[in-house]
Amino acid sequence: MAIRTQTIGERVRRREDPRLVTGQALYTPDIPLPGALHLAVVRSPYPHAEIVSIATEEAAAAPGVAGVFTAADILPTLKRPFPVAKAPDGGAFTELHIPARWALADKKVLTVGDPVVAVVAETAEQAVDAAALVDVDYRDLPGAGDSRAARAEGAEPLYDNVEGNRAFVWELHPEGAPEAAQGEVELSLDFRIQRLIPSAMEARAVAARLDGDRVTMWTSTQSAHRVKSSVARILGIPEERLRTIAPEVGGGFGAKANLYAEEVLVPWLALKLDRPVRWFATRTEDFQTTTHGRNLFVTLDVAADPDGRVRHCDVDVLYDSGAYFSRPGPTTPSLTGAMIVGPYDVATAHAHAVGAFTNTAPNEPYRGSGRPEATYLIERALDVLAGRLGIDPAEIRRRNLIPPHRFPYRTATGLTYDSGEYEKALDKALEAGDYAGLRAEQARRRAEGGKPLGIGLACYVEICGFGPWEAGGVTVEPDGAVTVRSGTSPHGQGHETAWAQIAADQLGVSLDDVTVLHGDTDECPRGIGTFGSRSAPVGGAAIFNNAETVRERAKALAARLLEAATEDIRFEDGRFFVAGSPARAVGWSEIAAFAHSAEAPEGSAADLTADVDFKPPGETFPFGTHLCAVEIDPDTGAVEILRYISVDDCGKVINPLLAEGQVHGGLAQGIAQALYEDAVYDEGGNLLTPTFLEYAVPRADMLPKYELHRTVTPTPVNPLGVKGIGEAATIGSTPAVCNAVMDALRPFGVEHLDTPLTPEKVWRAMQT
Amino acid sequence: MIPPSFDYHAPDNLEEASRLLLANPEAKLLAGGHSLIPMMRFRLAEPAALVDLRKIPGLSGIREEGGSLCIGAMTRESELEKSDLVQSRYPLLADTTRVIADPVVRNLATVGGNVAHADPGNDHPAAMLAYRASFVACGPSGERTIAASDFFTGPFSTCLEAGEILTEIRIPASGAGSGGAYQKFERKVGDYAVAAVAVQLQLDGGQVAGAGVALTNVGLTAIQAGAAEAALVGSDGGDAALDAAAEAAAAAADPGDDHRGSADYKRAVVRVLTHRAAASALARAREAS
């Protein structure tokens, strides 16, 4: 008998890669659509303006133009505005305005890049040329480029019914909060966390085609199913008439979990013109219109004992919501509040957030959403506290970490952390990084001279595995092959490999026997999508359970074939046999053939499909410790990362190769927030960083060699024991790098600088 | 990212190229295209016609001749990187080429394009000023040679006249005791410089006999820092001379505030880079003595 090894935990190479690295993969703009028209969108050049008039005649008469459409043409036909979730858990909105947002701007534009006119032509060139002929007359209004400007007295309101541009007011424990714990040491720190542009390698793109009375649309999204139901409802067509496909998707980072105007316009135009239509964003369109992330003003107050034990955290956020809410609504500031105590045993906490509508792109979840903010805030505060109290940064963390015997741990913010061995991760990082050796070298340089050396630590815990459910159907086909139908919507993670591993292990088949379907609403009946590091803990768990169900049901079929009682059937390595007689066994092909035969009891074939959604009983809380050592060029302020050690605990690991890939990318984005990236609007709302020339996404030589380590603390909330790894490294790395830079600057008497820590900012801090 | 429509010409001789330029004042020369085409795609440049130089023979190549290093205007940046002659004897040029954009761009971008586009952020103009290079231009009234110091007249503008085409760059041949260096400080690989400094030195018996110092992206054009050169000439290249040159270069810089940094900071960077470039140039010149 063939000996099969388990693949879970193995470094299985990505099944997706051959088609990706040979250029065979089809992204949305690559989908062959003979006779397709091209959409060009006329966009607002103003941050804030009234639309006085639109002249489209010249564009309509231009060569190749098939149609020019304004809000007056399209909006009356739409059944509803974009969907926005009402409110997240874990606190209360005492005020929340969700303005209606439509596929084209009607009376006003609220950001540079707002879609105003849709121009459709035979070629992309003709569409772009004709779009330039559309004449829109605007009456310019004062704009607000950030939340403080929008909230300032006398600021021009974006919406008539939203006083002071106050988008929402949210408070954790708005009433009945326990009295704040007191501490002898008090700390109050002000932060500005910069705005970031998620910058997926593939800019957004949409295509659509009529198939009989149905519409098939392709879109570069993280959530094909949500796009389908939203677009069907907006267009007012039954969901069955719309098929949505997320083909190859080149990154999303949260931004592609939202719904966008072009996802409504393109199928609308295909229906209207009875022709295939396609659109893809230029990089600047993508930067202007795809959601951004972070962007908060924060005050964090901390009360602590003289030995550094934190007693109370109070976080006050002014959040820039941009001009509109996207699908999730204001979840990021509330998550920031909910996660503010980090991995620490803090008695009480309070959080308060106010949102401002500004004349900028919507500001929504971006890789980590709320957890990077919370982690950065508490980790910076701990370092400042350690500095003031003369306690080593590693020691102050050790004193505050939640000990293992306290799990499940109820936080002062109302969350229940599932499992954790936080100190173990800290110790591993200190040992791997030779923390003592680094401190000795730092002391030597401070005494004898040399480039300033800084050592930064960040202990983090985050929240993943959001429900309420995810689909992951498993079918053993008539020939014994296995099909997985996942509701997750991968865009670089490697789900086709990981999901095949789960099914293969449960069913005792080889990876080659498993086909993973995803991102196509016809092939996969239900789904929520991929974001918030939820795919493995929720979607993966569904596959795990369904494969197990199929395997157990198959025992009854094996019992019939082997003429034995079901309870006597054993299963090993893909073979069913009667206990004690492993030599006489049947495999999946025999089981499947029998199930589909006339001899099998009715319903046997259906027994080989299990498709029960997984509904997690709670969220997962991955954690870890990152350690970073930096050196500063005192002449220029340039920061060089000498060492980067990450210890990440995401519970059990399905595939270390995939998990490490997620950590690599996460570190790149977290380090970029610390040192490089900064999306800048001017006071009035003009985006000053509209291309990669201005917006500094790091290149390979700007990132260090990563030293990755792991601890494994399984979660009890799903059968795989996995917690999620998509965002963890982003969350841990920004504070680790910032703490390292600030540690290097300690001799200069600087306690805090806001990110990004550009050479100039660091250089100025050293000029004292 | 789609440019407006334009005419395209690919003549096989300079006279024809020149004639096309004269006939159409809205035409632009196309060399490597790595500045012009992005500008067209953003519709920042909307030339009515492009005159592609790639089919004209004799416009590329690297050779030493008549006391000069002669570089054809259509020579690709990557060819400088691969040239043993450049790498072994023209360290300032070798340094400069290595930090222009990134390898993919350098495979197509040309030396002549980098010079003639006259973007104050381009790296070759400062190197050429420091080298005391001269440029050969062909036009309706024949061929002329222009000193680098006369060439750059403003941002994106040169003294080339209508119908004139840059054909060759001439750098004084490297001899004993010569050495140079280019120091660039950038936010990320491929970006324009926050500031950059080119230094070319000629030693004569331990003394600096000749110096070229020029600055990138801290003014409307590349800036020749004459006072910095004067601080070095006649000195022994000691710290005091380097400090003085660095101060003088910082004073010569005329940067503005932008997302790459404030004017103050850029001036400070010029000071640091001048010191570093001069020290490196000196070491190389001594090695070549």
Largest sheet of chain A: 7 strands, mixed
Query: Quick one: CATH class of one domain in chain A?
Result: Alpha Beta
Number of helices of chain A: 20
By helix and strand content of chain B, what is the structural category?
A: alpha+beta
Helix and strand arrangement:
The complex is a heterodimer of chains A (768) and B (289).
Chain A: H1 17-21, E1 37-43, E2 49-55, H2 57-60, E3 65-70, H3 71-74, E4 92-96, E5 108-109, E6 115-121, H4 124-131, E7 135-140, H5 147-151, E8 166-172, E9 185-196, E10 205-211, E11 214-219, H6 224-235, E12 242-245, H7 261-273, E13 277-280, H8 283-289, E14 293-304, E15 310-322, H9 331-338, E16 348-357, H10 371-389, H11 393-400, E17 409-410, E18 416-417, H12 422-432, H13 435-448, E19 453-461, E20 472-476, E21 482-486, H14 495-507, E22 514-518, H15 535-562, E23 569-572, E24 575-578, E25 585-587, H16 588-595, H17 604-607, E26 609-610, E27 623-632, E28 639-649, H18 656-675, E29 706-710, H19 728-744, H20 759-765
Helix pairs in contact in A: 9-10, 10-19, 14-15, 18-19
Chain B: E1 7-9, H1 14-23, E2 27-30, H2 36-41, E3 49-52, E4 62-65, E5 68-72, H3 77-82, H4 84-89, H5 91-98, H6 103-106, H7 111-116, H8 124-131, E6 134-139, E7 142-147, H9 148-151, E8 152-154, E9 157-158, E10 165-172, E11 178-186, E12 193-204, E13 207-216, E14 223-224, H10 226-232, H11 239-252, H12 263-287
Parallel strand pairs in B: 1-3, 2-3
Antiparallel strand pairs in B: 4-5, 5-10, 6-7, 6-10, 8-9, 11-12, 12-13, 13-14
